[in-house]
TrEMBL record:
It comes from the Bacteria. This is Putative phosphoglycerate mutase gpmB. Signal peptide: none annotated. Substrate binds at residues 10-17, 60. GO terms for biological process: negative regulation of glycolytic process; regulation of pentose-phosphate shunt. It comes from Deinococcus deserti (strain DSM 17065 / CIP 109153 / LMG 22923 / VCD115). GO terms for cellular component: cytosol. One of its GO terms (molecular function) is fructose-2,6-bisphosphate 2-phosphatase activity.
Length: 206
């Protein structure tokens, strides 16, 4: 198995992100802020070389990839999509919490899928399947917040930690256009960077 350096990028912000709506597989474009974030990321990546550029096929991820790495060939892979939130697509957290299906989903979101959607374990499985297929030395992938953290929990056995007011039980957040970098050597995975958004901090909050 080829040694691998894998950079995972969360897409730039959309209008639904700004409004606190959970979009999942709803195919929203970048908002103005997301475009600015992606251009700042382009300046950070301009001297880096990647053997392979992959992206979720949802347009907010594709647009981020195109703005961050202009002129690069991009391979679209639906395994990199965000979690399907099912009946919770488009809702705010307040709207989710009064939905009849919310408590059952929250009882075990790793194994229990929202009606019409996916469990976190299903997201992790397709992300892991994609990652294990990689055979290039340096890969960058434009994907989504829950998808990134589900993969990392699966790779490293991180515990699920319920967060007050936040329906996905991950202790860490990854901001828009942030970079998380992992390496695979002789089949063993290590993490080197999580949610690095220095390109936004230096040039403004976006």
């Amino acid at each position: 198995m080829t040694d691998l350096q894998l950079t995972l990028v969360r897409h730039g912000a959309t209008e639904w992100n700004e409004g606190g709506r959970w979009q999942g597989v709803t195919d929203n474009p970048l908002g103005d802020r997301g475009e600015r974030q992606s251009r700042r990321l382009a300046r950070r990546l301009r001297n880096q070389v990647f053997d392979q550029v992959d992206s979720s096929d949802l347009q907010r991820a594709v647009q981020t990839a195109q703005l961050a790495l202009p002129g690069q060939g991009i391979t679209l892979d639906p395994r990199l999509r965000e979690i399907h939130f099912g009946v919770f697509e488009g809702l705010t957290v307040d709207e989710m919490t009064v939905h009849p299906a919310f408590q059952e989903w929250q009882s075990d979101p790793w194994r229990v899928a929202p009606p019409g959607g996916e469990s976190l374990a299903e997201v992790a499985a397709r992300m892991r399947d994609w990652a294990e297929d990689l055979d290039q030395a340096s890969v960058i992938a434009f994907t989504h917040s829950v998808a990134i953290r589900a993969l990392l929990c699966d790779l490293f056995g991180w515990p699920l930690l319920p967060q007050p007011g936040y329906p996905v039980p991950f202790a860490h957040r990854v901001g828009h256009t942030s970079l998380s970098m992992v390496r695979r050597h002789s089949g063993h995975w290590t993490i080197h960077t999580l949610g690095d958004g220095a390109h936004l901090e230096v040039q403004g909050s976006g």
